[in-house]
Design goal:
Layout (H helix, E strand, L loop, with lengths): L6 E3 H8 L3 H9 L5 E4 L2 E5 H9 L6 H12 L1
Antiparallel strand pairs: 1-3, 2-3
Helix pairs in contact: 1-2
Length: 73
């Protein structure tokens, strides 16, 4: 799949950052990367990653919010 600049396949994302597909799958399963599902494919949301990094937010602000809520209770 070609990189549109907004979304990227797990395989392409893994290759672009130099880690295994299994590693990225693990990050996705743990909710560490923002993704969306298109048909049967799960795509990495590059736009959200770039936006969060540019604003100084963690890559997945939703995950961080859940974590904060969990430790506060």
């Amino acid at each position: 799949m070609e990189n549109s600049g907004i979304f990227q396949t797990i395989e392409d994302f893994a290759k672009s950052i130099g880690v295994s597909v299994r590693t990225v799958d693990s990050w996705v399963e743990r909710g560490l990367l923002p993704t969306c599902k298109v048909g049967k494919r799960r795509l990495i949301n590059l736009y959200q990653i770039r936006k969060n990094l540019a604003s100084g937010e963690p890559i997945n602000a939703t995950t961080l919010a859940k974590f904060r809520k969990k430790i506060e209770n």
